[in-house]
Design a protein that fits this description.
Layout lengths: L8 H54 L7 H22 L10
């Protein structure tokens, strides 16, 4: 009881296949475009973050402890430490080894 395919079914199946592949290609192209935009934004954010980190380090090194309020000095020191951690983890993808103890 084989059901032989008629000549009309093959072009119909081929057309459905081509339509599906066209839709898949369009979805892939849209996804790829969004991916490129996200990657570019990520690079821009990384550059901005590194710039901020560099400025905080410069300010930290230029501060004169004798002429600067203690709270300002501590705030800059805390910010520098936090920025250092963020740069390590988010940009350099560096995570220190955790002890299993």
């Amino acid at each position: 009881m084989d059901n032989p395919k008629t000549e009309d079914e093959e072009p119909k199946n081929e057309g459905m296949y081509l339509e599906a592949m066209t839709q898949l290609q369009e979805k892939f192209n849209a996804f790829n475009k969004k991916r490129i935009i996200i990657e570019n934004k990520n690079k821009m954010l990384a550059k901005e973050l590194l710039t901020c980190y560099g400025l905080v380090r410069i300010i930290d090194s230029l501060i004169n402890p004798e002429n600067t309020d203690f709270q300002v000095m501590m705030s800059i020191e805390i910010l520098r430490g936090y920025m250092s951690d963020v740069v390590d983890e988010c940009i350099l993808d560096f995570r220190p080894e955790e002890d299993d103890d």
